[in-house]
Amino acid sequence: MYKNYVITSETICHVLRIIWDAIQGKCKRDIREPKKRHWLLYAYPKHKFQHIQNIKLLLGLLVLYIPFPLFWTLYDQQGSRWIFQATRLDGVVGSYRIRPEQMIALNPLFILTLIPIYKLIIYPILEKLSLGTPLRQITIGGILTGLAFIAAFVLELNIQKYESPCQNIGNNEAHFRFYNVMPCELVINFTSDNPKFNETIVKLDPLDVFEILNVKNFDEKLYYWINFKIISTIKKCRNVTGNTQFYRGFSVGLVYYQRGSINKKSQDNDWFIEDTSCDISGNAKVKFLRTMNRLQKLELKTDKVSFEIPESYEIEEYSIPVGKYKIVINDNVTVHCDECETVNFKSGEVTNVMIIQTEDDGYQCKTFQLTGPNKIHMLWQIPQYILITLGEVMFSVTALEFSFKQVPASMKSILTVIWLCSAGIGNLITVVFVKLNIFQHQVRFLQFNFFQFNLNLFHFTGVGISHVRRLISVPSAKITELLVSSSIPTTPRTVLGSNLLIWIDMLLFAFLAYNYTNNPLIDIQPRSPKSPEKLPKSASDNDDVE
To answer: Residue ranges of region Disordered (predicted)?
Structure first.
């Protein structure tokens, strides 16, 4: 048999009703009546005085929660921004590769380790340094959280240092590459309707690549035409004249290859958008550009696994797990690429593999790397995970413990709702920042400074919180007298110091916003494929190979 227990604590609806009645009572009061000390008293005697007192204590405590959404804005980016950062790091440790999404598992492990260390070592030390009060611990936790994002910022700068130029395509420029996937030497004449593009004549051997980076002067145009005239130095390859488009903000590739036998003169050219960003899974992104006498089976093999590349002349992109592979055609012919028996695909690498079949049914293979592999190890993220975990224990755990000790038992459920709502608002702030793209190059760093600005609200709210604590400590018989006659104890020095710190931090935040908006250093947005074509295929999502 089930028992229905009567709800003894205030609910959200009850709290909102008292607040609404207090607002209505204040608005409808007679001007001739003496003004009450607190606006919530206008809900009395319609509601019990104890309930009004509980809500007043709750509202006084909520001032402390003003910076909380900004803490969650930073903290919850472990599951988004930091994972995207990890995709540009090398996770290989011996024979095992750490995946980007696995790094977030460090946070709960560090929490389980640090909580007892805090209780036994850190908190006693803070007590001796007169930093053991909850508000001071919360402030230290916020500072540690900010330091975690400074560590992430420094790591981002080092990642940027090793990135390939083709990864950073500006909004007013484009990249262009021509791939000679033919067993012929070609002489090509390039012209364009872009006034900054000079006529260029190049000579390309088989499996050579010609690239033009940072084509500028797009102004308001979406794309320009590039014209090409291909002249073969031998008769077996046809001369071709044509044109293609290269788009603003994109990297465009043009490949010259054949479909079927050379004797049938089925040479063709095709253009495609090259996505030079790292694969989100940390795998290598690979395209296969091939000239075959006929469609043939192509496989990537190791001792443990093999991936089959479909028989097609279409230019597809594949996500290949990190490892060393043999390129095998028709189950029996191993193709040596770059004069090596295996091709080593590394984490974060973006590579095009060019294969041609000669008239004597031999094969030639060469790789062209668009984006280099990740050169900084993923374990360099550990310092920022340690800092944010230290900040979480001191900020989140201390704040929650402090809050629950300050409110009556009947208000604890309401406080839990407010706590969860602050986390939701923090995530919403992140969404708004990313969607508006206001600080596209320094989002995390500016959020840290904005968070630092709100930390100074603790100076402002500390007086109010001390007043709430004084209310809770008095006997219940004196609550009425204290509620009616009390006022927040302030001193000119306290108010002046708080306001001065807030104004200094506001000026600092304005300076940083202007500086980093006009002088962007890095792009920390998660990179997504820029191609308007269909999404790339994945060869396999199996485990990594050696």
So the answer is: 525-546
Other Cβ atoms less than 10 A from the Cβ of 314: the count is: 7
Residue type, position 539, single letter: A
Cα–Cα distance between 359 and 410 in angstroms, integer? 86
Read off the tokens for 505.
């931090």
Q: 272 falls in which pLDDT band (50, 70, 90)?
A: confident
DSSP string, 392-412: HIIIIIHHHHHHHHHS-GGGH
> What helix, strand, coil percent values describe the chain, rounded to 5?
45, 20, 35
Is domain 165-371 classified as CATH 2.60.40.2890? yes
Residue range 49-162+378-489 forms a domain whose CATH class is: mainly alpha
Residue 236 to residues 180, 185, 241, 267, 292, Cα–Cα distance (Å): 15, 11, 16, 10, 15
Confidence check: pLDDT of 219 > 60: yes
Q: What gap in Å lies between CA 86 and CA 246, rounded to an integer?
A: 31
Q: Which residues contact 545 (CB under 8 A, 6 or more apart)?
A: 302, 304, 305, 321, 322, 323, 324, 325
Domain ranges of the chain: 49-162+378-489, 165-371
| Position 57, amino acid | L
pLDDT of 525: 35
Helix residue ranges, H only, 275-411: 382-392, 398-406
Look up residue 10 and give its DSSP letter.
Answer: P
Work out whether strand 200-204 and strand 96-97 pair parallel, antiparallel, or are unpaired. Answer: unpaired
pLDDT of residue 498: 43
Question: Quick one: pLDDT at residue 516?
Answer: 42
Question: Which residue type is seen at 113?
Answer: T
Cβ(146)–Cβ(452) under 8 Å?
yes
